[in-house]
Design a protein that fits this description.
By secondary structure, the chain is of the alpha/beta class. The chain has 10 helices and 6 strands; from the N terminus they run E-H-E-H-E-H-E-H-H-H-H-E-H-E-H-H.
Length: about 250
């Protein structure tokens, strides 16, 4: 067993969204990206992918690849799942990165939108939500960036997307857990995020003892995809802080 980095994807993408980070760190530190239940061709665990079920998938992946502990980096939905992992399996966590995410649960209106997304994809297929998913990237995103994101979204099954959407709607309020986080933590936002405002994400950093906060310019919700160089720099600095990577 060893320590490494585990990357947890956003909704409704899969582990492929992390290819720039995996490429940058390959050969320098043990690194892997997990597919949450139903995504990336993996098995689905029922009609609702709760955060608990998703966290269990992370533990299974840690065991499969031989990571005793990991610096876990979750973006958006991946952040929600990472918070659940911390609650239930903090012994497997060496450090944390929360990117473009929040600790608050959905409002009633937000829960209803999640249910509507689930109903829509089950009735009409994953392509039916593509126009909504354009908010994953900034208004200035290139056609290449959107094409990359669109291709990953299109490839997901309606059942996986619906189950994850319903699971996010039922996720708990994680704000009470933030003050108890006692591992090195980095919180990342981006100024072009159209889904979770920087002020909301900044609130996480303020509530986590010793957490560092950074804002990436020129990126939308998928900050690691739109600005991989800046994201990788922040991630590498944090891995140094966690003792997984030596400084250059």
């Amino acid at each position: 067993m060893t320590d490494g980095v585990l990357l947890v994807h956003a909704f409704p993408l899969d582990a492929r969204m992390w290819q720039e980070q995996q490429s940058s760190l390959a050969g320098r530190v043990p690194i892997a990206a997990v597919n949450l239940p139903g995504f990336g061709g993996t098995s689905l665990n029922g009609d609702v992918t709760t955060m608990e079920l998703a966290a269990q998938r992370i533990v299974q992946e840690l065991d499969r690849i031989g990571f005793d502990r990991a610096v876990v980096c979750g973006l958006s939905m991946g952040g929600y799942v990472t918070l659940e992992l911390w609650r239930r399996h903090s012994d497997r966590v060496l450090g944390l990165v929360f990117a473009n995410t929040k600790a608050e649960p959905d409002s009633e209106e937000g829960k209803q939108r999640r249910r509507e997304v689930a109903d829509l994809v089950l009735a009409e297929g994953t392509a039916a939500i593509l126009e909504q998913m354009r908010t994953l990237v900034s208004l200035e995103a290139t056609s290449d960036v959107w094409g990359f994101v669109e291709g990953i979204v299109r490839s997901q099954t309606p059942e996986a997307v619906a189950a994850a959407s319903l699971g996010m709607a039922s996720r708990p309020d994680s704000r009470p857990d933030l003050s108890g986080i006692d591992v090195p933590t980095l919180v990342i936002s981006s100024e072009g995020d159209r889904l979770i405002a920087s002020e909301v994400t900044a609130g996480m950093a303020e509530a986590i003892p010793g957490a560092e906060f950074a804002i990436i310019d020129g990126a939308g919700h998928l900050s690691n995809v739109e600005r991989p160089i800046e994201f990788n720099r922040l991630l590498e600095q944090h891995l140094q802080r966690c003792g997984l990577l030596r400084g250059s």
